[in-house]
Amino acid sequence: MLGAMRKTRLYLDTSPIIRVSDDRSPIRQAITKEFFRMIAERSEEYELFISPVTFEELDDGTEDRKAASDLVLAAIDYTKLPLNDDAEDLAELYVREGVLSQTHIDDLRHVAYATFFRCDYVITWNMRHLANEQTLRRVSVVNTVENYGKLYIATPEFFIGGKIYGK
Fold first, then answer.
1. How many domains is the chain built from?
2. 102 within some domain
3. What angle do CA 99, 101, 104 make, to 5 degrees?
4. The pTM of the whole model exceeds 0.90
């Protein structure tokens, strides 16, 4: 019955898109490229979503970064989520509930869009603010109270199963 299963919905924040062309960390760059290759290869299992927040952040970058990001976006199949007041309100609720401070509202906007549009995972390299136990636990509490489903926050490495390391 695997064919009848719903695709896993992956929300991309800005960091994986940027990481493809960012050679400051060759391992993370290689992991990210493998992640996108695997997602393309297994498109019957996964679908990608990108919100206006991601596009805002990409537009704020240098011309080189924008050009590199445009190449990544042209190479992947994704759904562009619309600007949504309910998702924006949810981000503000996360701030009020102490998930992260107002300083990190854009990080919370990513989480809110992923939550509101029923994604299963936020894919990010932002481990300081997003892909960590404390943020995940706090988001889960708010999402449970607000009757949203479970959301996971993971790095691209989570999905590739150690392939970069020869396993």
1. 1
2. yes
3. 100
4. yes
pLDDT band at residue 5 using 50, 70 and 90 as cut-offs: confident
Is 129 part of any domain?
yes
Identify whether the C-beta of residue 111 lies closer than 8 Å to the C-beta of residue 91: yes
Query: What is the DSSP secondary structure assignment for residue 105, as one 8-state letter?
Result: H
CATH number at residue 34: 3.40.50.1010
Q: Is the pLDDT of residue 163 over 70?
A: no
Q: For the segment 56-68, what is each residue's pLDDT rounded down to a tens digit? A: 999 998 899 899 9
Q: How would you label 1-40 residue by residue, b for 16+ Cβ within 10 Å and e otherwise?
A: eeeeeeeebbbbbbbbbbbbbbeeeeebbbbbbbbbebbe
Residue 136 lies inside a defined structural domain of this protein? yes
Q: Could you give the 3-state DSSP secondary structure of residue 155?
A: coil
Q: What percent of the chain has pLDDT over 70?
A: 94
Beta strands in the chain (DSSP E): 8-12, 46-50, 78-80, 121-123, 152-154
Residue with tokens 């007041």: 85
Does residue 101 lie within any of the structural domains? yes
